[in-house]
Amino acid sequence: MSTFAYDKLQKLCAEPRFHGNGFIQLYLSERKRLHIWSPNLPPIRSHNARIHDHRYDMISEILWGKLQHTTFDVCIMSTGNYDMIQLDGASEVRHKPGHILLDKYSREIKHQYCFAKGSSYSFNRHLFHDSAADTFTVTIMTKGAENSDSFARIIVPTGTKQPTHAFAPEYQPTQKLLWQEIEFACQRCGFDILRHIR
Q1: CATH number of the CATH domain containing 30
Q2: Which end of the chain is more exposed for a tag (fewer CB within 10 A), N or C?
Q3: Which are the contacts of 69, defined by CB distance < 8 A and separation ≥ 6?
Q4: How confident is the model over 99-113, as pLDDT tens digits?
Q5: What pTM did the predictor assign?
Q6: In which domain, by residue range, is 145 found?
């Protein structure tokens, strides 16, 4: 089953990429993404803007490992210590940099979760969060309802001269390494991955 799943991914999917928040991202369909965190991947840059929102609702299913998920309350506050940057076309932001919105913001941790294999969670658009894993972890992210008139946003400390975030240009490991990690994921949970392939 693991070999079948891996072969099918190679045949049906475009090239994977190393996402700026530290995981491999492989598009399974227009609405589904395979995400893989692995200690074999190179370290990401020291991001100062990992906390972000999406313009779509999402569901994440943990197929292997454990995922840490932190949610945040972000509020307009005249004495706030954070700026909000609107990403004018998230995946294209390397060509179209975002811009800082006028208000100042406060940022507080709201909830912290650890989701294990077999669990899932949903998260609404326009709310702020961050996800991370310190062991080999495989998830499927499914996009839900989307607000096409809005943009993704990130939160950065006020005065940040050069925001670094998930959509900025990032060092990319070789395709060979990325596919090796995908093959390893198929060995662990290939049947579950197959359920989500278009």
Answers
A1: 2.60.120.10
A2: C
A3: 60, 112, 113, 114, 115, 121, 129, 130, 131
A4: 778 899 999 999 999
A5: 0.90
A6: 2-194
Q: Which residues contact 158 (CB under 8 A, 6 or more apart)?
A: 80, 81, 82, 83, 104
pLDDT greater than 90 at residue 98: no
Residue 45 is predicted with a pLDDT of 66
Per-residue pLDDT, 94: 46
In this structure, the strands spanning 17-18 and 24-27 are: antiparallel
Q: Per-residue DSSP letters for 114-145?
A: EEETT-EEEE-TT-EEEEE-SS-EEEEEEEEE
**What gap in Å lies between CA 44 and CA 92, rounded to an integer?**
19
Q: How many Cα atoms are found within 13 Å in the side-chain-facing hemisphere of 50?
A: 16
Alpha helices by DSSP H, the chain: 2-12, 175-194
**Euclidean distance between CA atoms 145 and 153, whole angstroms:** 17
The torsion angle over the Cα atoms of residues 170, 171, 174 and 179, rounded to 10 degrees, is -40
- What is the C-alpha to C-alpha distance for residues 195 and 119, in angstroms, rounded to an integer? 16
Secondary-structure percent of the chain, ordered helix, strand, coil, rounded to 5: 15, 40, 45
Domains of the chain: total: 1
pLDDT value at residue 93? 42
Q: Phi and psi at residue 193, in whole multiples of 5°? A: -65, -40
